[in-house]
Structures are given as C-alpha cells and as structure tokens.
Amino acid sequence: MADTSSSRPARRRFAPHVRASLALGSIAVASLGLTACDSPPPSPPQLQDARFTTVSECVNAGFPDRLCEAGYSAAWQNYQETAPKFTTKQSCEEEWGTDKCVTQTLAPAQVASTSSGSVFMPMLAGFMVSQALQQRYRDDGGTIYGGTSLYGAPIYRDRSGTPVQIDPPSTADTKAIPRPVNMNTTSVARSGFGGSSSGRSSGG
For the chain, how far is it from start to end, CA to CA, in angstroms? Predict the structure, then answer.
C-alpha cells in the first residue's frame, strides 16, 4: 500500500504566545464593534437665532426657503404690531434718521389715536429667524403652520446705520431700547437643515 502521509497538508502550528496574541486581537475587534453599536447617536447641532436683510439672503445662507419666508412673515407681523410709532415724520426722523421712516395707515379701530389716520415708523431693515421657529420646523419635518410673531422679530437701522433689534419693555412704564445685533451675511445653516429646499410657500 502506498504511503499517503506525505500528501497530507502539514498542520500549521503556532507558538503559545502567537495563539494568545490572536485571541486578544479577536476580543479587541469584538469590543470595538460592541462600542460602535452601543454608542448613542450624535446630538443635533445647537440652534441659534439668525438675522438677515432679505429672504433671498436667508436662502443663500443655506436655510430652507419655506423657513426663511415663515421667519419674514412672523417678523412683518411683529413689525406691524410693535414698531415705534410717531405722529409726525419729523419726530420719527429725529430719532431714527433722515429718510429712514415710512408712513403706516392705521386700521379704522386705531384712527382715534391720531387725527391724521396714519403714523410714521422706522423702516423694516431685516428679520430674525428665531430658534423657536427653527426647532418647530425641524420637529415637524418641514411643516410650517400659521405664523406667529413669536417666531420672528423685525430688524431696524438706527441713525448711524447699525442694525438693531427692539426687545419688549419689561414693564409698561419702561421704554424699549434698541440693541445692536449682528446680521448673518455668510453661510450659517449648520443646524441640520443642510441647505435643503422644501418648496416655496406664500408670504414674505
């Protein structure tokens, strides 16, 4: 009978320290896999108020167009309700600067407050897309419901041309004081929107 032992493949033998190294390597790989599976998902970027001069500027910065338009609509509503109002153009320009005031016709219910039926207000120079609006847009999957002035704020320019925002006074006897704000002029959409567009909505 022929000797077939020479045709059998030789069994590979590892020294004890080699076998131990291979076992430890397998454990390390398995541990890394478990760690990757068990790690929590990254938190979404923190939202921040964003301020722009126009809706187009907001969209160009990477925010969805519907979100920008909703922010503008909310700021416009807020502007109509809360903008400083003067009975004469002169008094308005004395505080806000020459050619920086516009005429606003009052609603019939408001005419009793002035003999002319109109008032003068500083021009709307921009709008704020609030954190609250951005959060709602994100939570609702891009759905925009009825506007509310809480979601946006008007931006003005003072006599020197500095962008300012007027916060509501703390009490009825306190005068609201404009505070300088920074306008966003470069890409700022780092809040999970990624420059996506969801179709245009009405308004703004």
Answer: 97
Q: Tell me the CA distances in angstroms from 178 to 28, 151, 188, one per residue in order.
A: 60, 19, 24
Answer positive or negative: Cα dihedral of 103, 154, 106, 95. negative
Rounded Cα gap, residues 20 and 14, in angstroms? 10
The one-digit pLDDT tens for each residue of the chain (204 residues) are 555 555 555 555 555 554 555 455 555 545 555 455 566 666 656 788 899 999 999 999 989 999 999 999 999 999 998 899 999 999 999 999 999 999 998 766 555 555 567 899 999 999 999 888 888 888 887 766 555 556 789 999 999 999 999 987 767 677 778 999 988 755 555 545 543 433 333 333
- 74's tokens: 């909310």
- Report the 10 Å Cβ neighbour count for 74: 26
Domain boundaries of the chain, sorted by first residue: 49-83+124-156
Distances (CA, A) of 127 to 17, 19, 33, 87, 160: 69, 68, 48, 25, 19
Residue 8: DSSP 8-state = S
